[in-house]
Design goal:
Blueprint: H1 2-14, H2 19-34, H3 41-50, H4 57-71, H5 73-85, H6 91-107, H7 110-127, H8 132-143, H9 153-162, H10 166-195, H11 205-230, H12 236-254, H13 263-293, H14 296-305, H15 311-326, H16 331-349, H17 354-368, H18 376-385, H19 389-412, H20 415-425
Length: about 425
């Protein structure tokens, strides 16, 4: 049944069927012809797959992103990034990485980052002479930073399932997230020099100070969220609500760039994007159910973990496994599926630090959201940028290389992850 599921899915995707429908149809074909499970299991699992309190964070973060866009908060972040790095080769694309990193720090969600900043970034770059596929690829790859730089919903899930410290995981993700941002900026610099992309004139000190003042209020948002989560005042989902409320109050009463009459349109846009994302996740949940029934995760993990007794070889194979599933399934589902399988073996049997392994898992799965064939951020960006999915898939491949290199570095150099938690929480 597994091979039928995979072959039918890729066949329908190749025929340009919408990915969510391709997932659902592949599940239906596999059940009808190769299983005794009733077909009614598909809608049942689709509903159950999104019946989660944690998933409430997605529409709330998307609402926060839309409010930030409408209220000018994202414009201020983007302006801040452009003032600071716009004079470098590929400066506008560099500014997109800076803005995405700051927005990711606020939203904790790769999908929310694409939904919140993607349209602004793509329009700014295309208006300044960048090819749209390159612009969309930059924005999508930068969204990976979201749940690696805290706050992070996948880290919360990992901590809850393994009884590890949320604070240590948050601290452990800071350096890897910054390294991934720098690696993307280096690649953009190289591509920009080769293709002679435009750059801005150097900014004056006064302009930099002014941009910093404008960005202070938006940057306060993640400090409030991170402090509230770390201190236990509210959960990540409640933090998403705080982010949306903060963006609403700032836009309405401080910047006064949003009027009450604008709110219905903002809410509807957030609901439409949320519906698209939720439908993809629900169909992914149906596929995840069938893979679980066939014990695909157990079989694959058993094979790869028996491949070698060397810890570093095992981690390499685990990276490949997680990248593969991260590109096929929703990150939370992969965590729930694989933590019970991988954690006892990798942490308890091979002695890998649990915080280190948690960041490895989260980094892999976040790279997966921007990785073909079914990375969720890819499909959100095609909706935002009005691009064909195959065009964006080709464009993003070079941008995955530097962040995968950083992934390997944090895998084989544990202090990259463990140094900050050891310093501040031991």
């Amino acid at each position: 049944m597994i091979w039928t599921l995979i072959i039918v899915f890729f066949l329908l995707a190749a025929l340009r069927m919408q990915i969510a429908f391709a997932l659902g149809m592949a599940c239906a074909v596999a059940l009808i012809f190769f299983s005794d499970i009733p077909l009614a299991a598909i809608p049942h699992k689709m509903v159950n797959g999104i019946d989660s309190y944690v998933f409430l964070a997605i529409p709330l973060f998307l609402l926060a992103g839309n409010l930030m866009n409408a209220g000018g908060l994202t414009d201020r972040l983007f302006k801040f990034g452009r003032i600071m790095v716009g004079h470098i080769y590929g400066g506008l694309a560099q500014a997109c990485v800076i803005a995405s990193m700051l927005f990711a720090w606020m939203s904790g969600s790769a999908v929310a980052t694409v939904g919140g900043l993607g349209e602004i970034e793509v329009k700014a770059m295309t208006d300044n002479g960048y090819d749209k596929p390159i612009a969309a690829a930059v924005a999508t790859s930068a969204s990976v930073l979201g749940p690696i730089i805290p706050p992070s919903i996948p880290m919360i899930i990992y901590a809850a399932m393994t009884e590890q410290s949320v604070g240590k995981l948050f601290l452990g993700g800071i350096i890897p997230g910054l390294m991934m941002a720098v690696s993307l900026m280096v690649l953009i610099y190289i591509i920009a020099r080769k293709r002679n992309f435009p750059k801005d004139e150097p900014s004056t000190t006064r302009q930099k100070v002014s941009a910093m003042k404008d960005a202070i209020i938006p940057i306060l948002m993640p400090l409030i969220m991170l402090g509230g989560i770390a201190s236990g005042i509210f959960t990540p989902t409640e933090a998403a609500a705080v982010a949306a409320l903060y963006a609403l109050l700032v836009s309405l009463f401080i910047y006064r760039s949003v009027k009450f009459r604008d709110l219905p349109k903002i809410f509807v846009n957030a609901m439409i994007t949320s519906a698209v994302i939720t439908f993809i996740i629900s169909n992914t949940s149906a596929m995840s159910f069938l893979l679980t029934v066939e014990e695909a995760g157990v079989k694959i993990a058993s094979v790869v973990l028996n491949f070698s007794s060397n810890k570093w070889v095992i981690l390499f194979v685990v990276n490949i496994l997680l990248l593969l599933f991260g590109a096929l399934m929703e990150a939370g589902v992969v965590l729930i599926l694989f933590i019970p399988i991988l954690y006892p073996l990798v942490v308890e049997q091979y002695g890998v630090d649990p915080i280190h392994f948690g960041i490895i898992m989260c980094a892999n799965l976040m790279i997966g959201v921007a990785t073909p064939p079914v990375g969720v951020s890819l499909f959100v960006m095609t909706h935002v940028a009005k691009l064909k999915i195959e065009t964006l898939m080709r464009a993003i491949l070079p941008f995955l290389i530097p962040i995968i290199i950083i992934l390997l570095m944090l895998t084989y150099i544990p202090p990259i992850v463990t140094w900050l938690p050891d310093v501040f929480m031991n």
